[in-house]
TrEMBL record:
It comes from the Eukaryota. Keywords: Membrane, Transmembrane, Transmembrane helix. The keyword Iron does not apply. Pfam families: DUF6533 (PF20151). The chain crosses the membrane at residues 44-65, 77-94, 114-133, 166-185, 206-228, 240-261. InterPro entries: DUF6533. This is DUF6533 domain-containing protein.
Length: 322
């Protein structure tokens, strides 16, 4: 009877964990071609390192949760695995926020005031979350036999104040969202109207529009998810709290990569399409009619490749390495 009661209580949590794992794996598979083209094939930057941490550590954590972490046959579970799950999700969250900060800094032309403000809130967040998590893990225990005859993994003993760990991310996301919202407000109606007209003709949004759109919308989604986590832990510590954390983790795993992929696709794709179109037409260029000034001896594919490489350099300067 105890086993039935336990399973009926925890089956919904397992279903949510399965759904979140499927979402993360599906998102990775459906964007992997863009990842190869826009991340792995480009010159490396700090933002790309955050991308790899965010995407692949997130995959590892959720695959662990649905394999080792929920296996009904595993025994002698070590405390290290519980630490991997909790610390892993935090690192995924911090890497996503690092990507977001790069985005905001690029919008404000790398303003020192903006960068210092975000960096201060960011490091305070990391210190606070690490302190709370460290103290919380000192009180939890991991068991593989939750009741006699039922083997599964259960992490229990989280202190009642554990929900406070999600308050610092709320402040961080609110800071990012505030900067993005102000930038969007200053993006004049005339500019927005012009962008919409251009999009209707070319079928493509401008780089500025995509930069602002994602920088406003994505932090807002993250802000809602972390607020939900606070409510989940406060009102339903276990298993409700762990369920909301799974949802918040998905947000961090998906939004970070999408931020970079969307912007890079908007930046690089027009030049790639133009280069492919020119090459397929068999056009030959020289110094006078291509506008490739200062590059002697280049024509056709070489001139186009030089332009793309130069633009990549400009992008790293303007967009903070994104």
């Amino acid at each position: 009877m105890d086993a039935i009661a336990y399973q009926s209580r925890h089956i919904p949590k397992g279903q949510v964990q399965l759904a979140t794992t499927v979402i993360i794996v599906y998102d990775h598979l459906t964007t992997f071609d863009r990842e190869i083209e826009l991340i792995w094939a480009k010159k490396w930057s700090l933002a790309q390192i955050f991308f790899i941490i965010n995407r692949y550590l997130g995959d590892a954590v959720y695959m662990y949760v649905k394999t080792i972490g929920t296996s009904p046959t595993i025994q002698n579970v070590t405390f290290i695995w519980a630490c991997f799950q909790t610390w892993g999700l935090n690192i995924v969250l911090w890497s996503m926020q690092a990507i977001m900060q790069h985005r905001i800094a690029s919008i404000y032309s790398n303003s020192r005031k903006v960068i210092y403000t975000m960096a201060t809130v960011y490091f305070l967040e990391i210190i606070t979350m690490s302190t709370i998590l460290g103290k919380a893990l000192s009180t939890v225990h991991v068991t593989d036999e939750v009741i006699p005859g039922l083997f599964t993994i259960k992490v229990a003993g989280f202190p009642p104040w554990y929900y406070t760990m999600w308050i610092p991310p709320i402040f961080m996301e609110a800071t990012i969202f505030g900067f993005a919202l102000y930038a969007g407000y200053t993006y004049s109606r005339d500019s927005l109207k012009l962008d919409l007209e251009t999009a209707s003709k070319s079928g493509r949004r401008s780089l500025t529009f995509i930069l602002l759109r994602d920088s406003i919308f994505f932090p807002f989604i993250a802000l809602l998810a972390y607020t939900l986590s606070v409510g989940g832990w406060k009102g339903f510590p276990n298993p409700g709290g762990q369920t909301t954390v799974s949802v918040a983790g998905v947000v961090a795993c998906v939004l970070g990569p999408r931020l970079m992929l969307n912007l890079r696709e908007a930046y690089y794709r027009p030049f790639t399409e133009e280069a492919q179109g020119q090459l397929s037409a068999g056009l030959e260029f020289n110094h006078d009619d291509t506008g490739v000034s200062g590059v002697s001896g280049l024509s056709g594919a070489s001139a186009i490749e030089h332009n793309v490489n130069a633009l990549e350099g400009d992008e790293r300067k303007q967009l903070g390495g994104l």
